[in-house]
Amino acid sequence: MGNNSYCETLSSEWSLPDATALVVKLSDVHYGITVRVLQTLDGSQLPDDTLTVWGDNGALCRIYLNGMAIGDTMVFGLNETDFMGNSVWNPEYPHDLEQEGDYVVSVCGVHALDYDNGLVTGWITGPVNESMTLAEFMQVVATCSLTSGVPEPDVDNALQVAGNGGDRPVLSLAAQRQVQLQVLDALGRSIIARNWDGSPLPLHGLAPATYVVQLRIEGRTIGRRVTVAR
């Protein structure tokens, strides 16, 4: 959902992972997994240790992780946990699982790639499967990361959210203008799609979850995660 390649994900401020890492799955833990960090490839240096990585519990903007086999090696774009699994929770799981030092794998963009026999495979530079060596992939990552330093504040800061994390977030634009608005759920389904002039827009009636608000504005698509916690 959102960006169509790992390179594009690295170039987008709203979906940028904190770290890119080569990891191997050790075990399942509720809606998450434990992994061993084999190598930090980009971004914040991760501890050379076991991490708990959380996926989707049924109502979050994250990928599902439990389908991976123990021993699978992956390249993950990891973000520090936002603890949303503790507040937007599924009664099937304890509601205090996510802890400081844990990470998540977002579904907003491409945050997971396969790794096998020395090759990274997936949507790396575009929406088509590619395979390249780890060294080649690291060169691509370094190049893509450089493009994230060209912000356009008048556009990227246009969307404002009041009450994010409450029961009725309100969207608005810093300056009123006509844009195309779309609100997507964790499965990428369109919940709201309309033209909008930027006047305050309460998000009534949404189930507790994290959503992605996308705007088509001045020829660009920008996005922001919005949480309804109760």
Number of domains: 2
Average predicted local confidence, pLDDT: 85
| Main beta sheet strand tally, sense and closure | 5 strands, mixed, barrel
CATH architecture of the largest domain: Beta Barrel
Distance N terminus to C terminus?
24 Å
Q: Kindly identify the CATH topology of the largest domain.
A: OB fold (Dihydrolipoamide Acetyltransferase, E2P)
**How many runs of DSSP E, i.e. beta strands?**
15
Structure, described:
The chain has helices spanning 6-10, 84-87, 134-146, 153-156; strands spanning 19-29, 32-43, 50-54, 73-80, 103-104, 112-116, 119-122, 130-133, 159-162, 170-173, 179-184, 190-196, 201-202, 209-217, 220-228. A hairpin with a 6-residue loop joins β2 and β3. The chain is globular. Residues 147-153 have low confidence and may be disordered. The longest helix is centred in the middle third of the chain and has 13 residues, at 134-146. It is mainly β. Helix content is 11%, strand content 40%. The strands form three sheets. It has a five-stranded mixed beta barrel with strand order 1-2-3-5-4. Strands 12-11-14-15 form a four-stranded antiparallel sheet, with no helix packed on it. The chain folds into two domains: 6-149, OB fold (Dihydrolipoamide Acetyltransferase, E2P) (Beta Barrel), CATH 2.40.50; 153-228, Immunoglobulin-like.
Keywords for this structure?
single chain, 230 residues, mainly beta, OB fold (Dihydrolipoamide Acetyltransferase, E2P), Immunoglobulin-like, 2 domains, five-stranded mixed beta barrel, four-stranded antiparallel β-sheet, 40% strand
